[in-house]
Amino acid sequence: MNTQVHFPYLVKAKNLFNNRSNSGFTLPEMLVVIVLIGILATLGIPNWLAFVNTQRLNTAGSEVHLAMRQAKSQATKEKLTWQASFREQDGILQWAVHATTVNPSNANWNNLDSNVRLDAETTLQISNGVRQIKFDYRGNSAPRSITISSKSGGKAKRCVYISTILGAMRTAKEHATTNNEGDYCY
Cα(79)–Cα(38) distance, rounded to whole angstroms? Predict the structure, then answer.
């Protein structure tokens, strides 16, 4: 009995195992893949870095807003004047919330992200290198603002405004054009 006639599938399977080919990729194929990965990385990395910087600014902006709200809340709760203080220490922006009777150097300072800095648009009062916003016993404050931006550059900014004498707060981010005062964050 001839196995090739009656069992053609066995012959094909036997030939597949006997004809071993070199499997894998050739050098030109590998180079094409590496070049494509490089092109995609070149296009994607700047967008990813911009996204990460924006997220850092959003987080820092939320912390600044929370610090100012905490100072206002403590002022009305304790019927004393409280302040939110901000300073740069060793290149890191820090914040503290404390009664005005406490010396800022003795306050409990908290670090913001090390890639965030105070922007020139900040209008907080400055005393001994510490920028501050004070809230009286009713939570009132003079209109002021704090603006933060990324140390690595870019146009992204985050702002917290005390927009009325009653201490109403709002947050904002950068715009493409300036307002009447020449600020981009309004």
Answer: 61
